[in-house]
Amino acid sequence: MVGHAFMGAAHSQAWRVAPRFFDLPVRPVMAVLCGRDADRARAAAERLGWAEAVTDWKSVLERDDVHVVDICTPGDTHAEIAVAALDAGKHVLCEKPMANTVAEAVAMAEAAERAARRGVRAMVGFSYRRVPALGLARDLVAQGRLGRIHHVRAQYLQDWIVDPAAPLSWRLDKEKAGSGALGDIGAHIVDATQFILGDSISEVMGTLVTFVPERPLASTHSGLSGTAATGQTGPVTVDDAALFLARFAGGALGSFEATRFANGRKNALRVEVNGSAGSLAFDFEDMNVLQFFDGTEDPAVAGFRRIMVTEPGHPYVAAWWPAGHGLGYEHAFTHQAVDFVRAVAAGTDPAPSFADGLQVQRVLAAVENSAVSGSWQQV
Ligand code: SOE
Question: Which of 68, 107, 134, 358 is surrounded by the most beta carbons within 10 Å?
């Protein structure tokens, strides 16, 4: 694994827990953690359960005892590491957004195509499609329970930098992150809605806003932000919020909002889908519930019902607790690790593939272009 901050911790938990709750064809071995600073990497390897720590990620590509490279670094390093790892014959799991530009995403998707011909696989870490409720949502749409889809309404609402005193972090630096709310959390709702519908966004029109253009430099980092250094400030070079309309290839109309300034909303990934025969609604802050409206019911008793997606028949749930006990944010990462291992062992391409990641990157770039042109942009 390369990188050991928030996503490194989430992926480490997933690799450790996956073989303990799911029957896997092969057992993941947490062999090497890679970080830029030797002391911090060693401490992280100890804390997160990795056998060894190194500071040069390239060194692991030459090792015969390493078969998978898990990329948990900021987006500006994804393309270099993923292409080199795939060309070295290592399977790759790469955090989202897959890349910082379409050109990088194209290079990664081409490397994945080359690698697949040699049985080497690649996946993008859009973890929310592995929340059981969103798996059930996809099943309901695929079964036709919503009929023809007219509307997709998606929001991803956070507020961790609504305070102007919150210091700069890599997520606010275009060089590192590629974009702000658009790529960091907007990418999640683009992937999640395309996953639920089994359809792709073909056209967008959007706008990007930076509410706070200057922030204190951080002296230390932890989690998503850090503590401000005294006095010095620096520029925010990414969007704080992104809003865009979308047309899906199958005809559905979408509205998307990704913001880090929805004061009071902590991790509210919300999706509502309206179809001719029914609707569904989801809010990650109530993640074990999927709301479902069956439009074919007697109008006298019809209404949105709260499905507890905690039953053995629901996606992934049977491996965990008895009916009704529920899951959390971390379980989606374990499901991601399970599906990755199973696909690699079966010799099939994991989903979302790097081609899926490239499609998301094209949507993000089209939104950025639309924000400049003020007009609809083809994806
Ligand atoms: C911050 O916005 C963040 O950590 C994202 O980067 C993650 O992808 C998401 O899972 C939680 O929020």
Answer: 134
Q: Per residue in 211-236, pLDDT tens?
A: 999 999 987 665 576 666 678 999 99
Site to substitute for ligand 1 among 6, 179, 238, 287, most atoms within 8 A of C-beta:
6
d(CA 264, CA 338): 33
Q: What lines the ligand 1 site, CB under 6 Å?
A: 6, 158, 184-185, 224, 267
How far apart CA 257 and CA 367 sit, in angstroms, is 12
Which atom belonging to ligand 1 lies closest to the Cα atom of 95?
8
> In sequence order, what are the residues at sequence separation of 6 or more whose Cβ sits closer than 8 angstroms to the Cβ of residue 298?
none
- For ligand 1, the distance from its centroid to the CA atom of residue 373, given in whole angstroms, is 28
DSSP for 4-39 reads: -SHHHHHHHHHHHHHHHHS--SS-----EEE-SSHH
Tokens 């399977």 correspond to 91
Instruction: Profile the chain (379 residues) by mean pLDDT over runs of 10 residues.
Output: 98 98 98 98 98 98 97 98 98 98 98 98 98 98 98 98 96 98 98 98 98 91 64 95 98 98 98 98 98 97 98 97 95 98 97 98 98 98
Q: Which residue has the tokens 């990641």?
A: 357
Cα-to-centroid distance, 238 and ligand 1 (Å): 15
ipTM of this complex: 0.95
Question: Please, are residues 364 and 97 in contact by the beta-carbon 8 Å criterion?
Answer: yes
Q: How far away, in angstroms, is 230 Cα from ligand 1 center?
A: 27
**Cα distance between residue 175 and residue 94, in whole Å:** 18
